[in-house]
Design a protein that fits this description.
17% strand; 332 residues; alpha+beta; globular; 11 helices; 3-stranded mixed β-sheet; 5-stranded antiparallel β-sheet
């Protein structure tokens, strides 16, 4: 909010700014309903009101759309949901891809102190196809390089961001396993260097916005990243997971499915991909796409499993809504 106030003067001759913050849900609706018809709404965050009550990030778009037809823009990629147009947003996935690129440069032989300094956040234009249709706009009118979500296209188009993120992560994970195996072999000669490399790797893992975990062949968790800790609600304490199994952490049905999938992967080798329903730290039921692969020890023996979790809940919900709409159309 402070940064927006600082730039208001630059647009004062073209725009009138109205700030609606710290409102309760029953106040937010009437407030946006009183805005002029030619208004545009910039949704920053509406996660808590002045009473301290917390809300999911989808709550504000729902309220706004019920009281106003104005386009809703945002600064966050995760906030481009039903009722939100989009805009130039910050993408955690693109930040993760940038972090992976740094790691690949390190693996190519470039010393840590020779790596280029961090770049500016790789923001991109992201728009909601449903909102474009509602407002009578076409994809051709968007800025070059814009990404459109919820557009009815092929399977690859719907999943391409997740596919590329997961593919990049798996490629990096395989390189990381090779690197760590070699580092263990040289540990007696380069203990200090290994500690530096390990810390750097953990930092990169924590920079990746996709939840990531790895566990041994007995199903005991060896580690995770901050995204994984936040998803499961462990208050950023990785030790809440490390040393435990899925049966220690999750409901029996979920743990049994994970264990069975692990044993199948260990027996058959290769990689594995499947969907499952998980309960996140907020107690919400989420659809998750798991992608897993094996990693080896210095004797080329299977040492455990590495995996990523891609939250596809919004995609599943959109598919279910589309299916119900098509069914209702056929029955009419």
């Amino acid at each position: 909010m402070k940064q927006l106030v600082e730039v208001e003067a630059e647009y004062r001759d073209r725009l009138s700014f109205v700030y609606l913050d710290a409102l309760r849900p029953n106040e937010l609706g009437p407030a946006v309903g009183q805005l002029p018809k030619d208004s545009a709404i910039l949704l920053l965050t509406y996660l808590r009101d002045r009473d301290g009550t917390s809300y999911p990030f989808t709550r504000a778009p729902e309220i706004i759309r019920n009281h106003s037809n104005a386009p809703v823009y945002t600064l966050w990629g995760d906030f481009v949901v039903d009722g939100v147009m989009g805009g130039l947003v910050i993408s955690g996935q693109q930040q993760g891809a940038l972090a992976v690129n740094w790691v690949l440069q390190l693996f190519s032989g470039i010393a840590i102190d020779k790596l280029p300094p961090p770049q500016a956040s790789p923001n991109s234009f992201l728009f909601n196809y449903q909102e474009l249709q509602r407002l009578g706009l076409s994809v051709a009118q968007l800025p070059d390089g814009s990404v459109v979500v919820n557009e009815p296209q092929t399977f690859y188009y719907r999943y391409r961001t997740g596919v590329w993120v997961v593919t990049t992560l798996f490629g990096w994970l395989m390189l990381s396993v090779l690197f760590l195996t070699r580092a263990n072999f040289l540990r007696s000669q380069a203990a200090q260097a290994i500690q530096v490399e390990k810390k750097f790797t953990e930092t990169v893992l924590d920079a990746i916005a996709v939840p990531l975990f790895y566990r041994d062949t007995d199903g005991v968790y060896l580690g995770t990243n901050n995204a994984g800790v936040e998803f499961f609600g462990f208050d950023k304490n990785k030790q809440d997971m490390i040393g435990k199994t899925s049966h220690d952490l999750f409901p029996k049905e979920v743990a049994d499915k994970a264990s069975a999938a692990d044993q199948q992967l260990i027996a058959n080798g290769g990689t594995q991909s499947y969907e499952s329903v998980m309960i996140n730290g907020a107690g919400e039921s989420r659809y998750v796409l798991f992608n897993k692969a094996l990693f080896l020890d210095s004797q080329s023996t299977v040492a455990g499993i590495v995996g990523t979790m891609l939250d596809i809940t919004e995609l599943k919900q959109a598919q279910q809504l589309a299916s119900r709409w098509l069914h209702s159309r056929r029955t009419q």
